[in-house]
Design a protein that fits this description.
heterodimer, A: 111 residues, mainly beta, 5-stranded mixed sheet, 10 strands, 0% helix, globular, B: 116 residues, 4-stranded antiparallel sheet
């Protein structure tokens, strides 16, 4: 069983704040890392697929970095808005086609 | 185009009954995945299909769980003799292919199963 850790477990920020959270995973046999956003009562939505060490991806105010040698990825949100409130999930892939999801970071952005 | 759809959206059943959950993937997607999330836990992989075959069934929690896919389209997840610990949100996802480095998995809205 792949050990995937996300921190913090939950986070409350004020509108306009920038924030970041961490996904840690074993660095051996790394294939890819997926980030998803899951809003309440909706389907998980894919944000990024990252494969290369040092990769940085950006989508609007959200960006992510990847360090495969030390086994972590950071997700950043710049100028948080209430609509960013969701659970953010990471899922590394170390073999086959199986994504192993972390338990997520639950973000609440207060207006 | 239409996304991944699942039915029913909610299912309440009594312990010991069988239930069948349905997933309609995005048209043309050859890969299909089932996951579940129990209360307070992360998303747990159950099974995936490449076409109509399931190369990896190791995530199914017990022999009460089975899944099939027909016509490289619809998939059903069947849980026999349901137990209270089967209560969870069951999510289906599909992707164009099986590459985890290039193929994004698109998720359906899930079926919330409650076993009384």
């Amino acid at each position: 069983i792949l050990n995937v850790e996300q921190s913090p477990q939950s986070l409350h920020v004020q509108e306009g704040d920038s924030t970041n959270f961490t996904c840690s995973f074993p660095s051996s046999n790394f294939y890819a890392l997926h980030w998803y956003r899951w809003e309440t009562a909706k389907s998980p939505e894919a944000l990024f697929v990252m494969t290369l060490n040092g990769d940085e991806k950006k989508k609007g105010r959200i960006s992510a970095t990847l360090n495969t040698k030390e086994g972590y990825s950071y997700l950043y949100i710049k100028g948080s808005q209430p609509e960013d409130s969701a659970t953010y999930l990471c899922a590394p892939v170390t073999s086959g086609s199986r994504l192993t999801f972390g338990e997520g970071t639950q973000l609440t952005v207060n207006p | 185009g239409a996304g991944v759809s699942q039915s029913p959206s909610n299912k309440v059943t009594e312990k010991g009954k069988d239930v069948e959950l349905r997933c309609d993937p995005i048209s043309g997607h050859t890969a299909l995945y089932w996951y579940r999330q129990r209360l307070g836990q992360g998303l747990e992989f159950l099974i995936y299909f490449q076409g109509n075959s399931a190369p990896d069934k190791s995530g199914l929690p017990s022999d009460r769980f089975s899944a099939e896919r027909t016509g490289e389209s619809v998939s059903t997840l069947t849980i026999q003799r349901t137990q209270q610990e089967d209560s969870a949100v069951y999510l289906c996802a599909s992707s164009l292919g099986l590459s985890t480095t290039t193929d994004t998995q698109y998720f359906g809205p899930g079926t919330r199963l409650t076993v009384l």
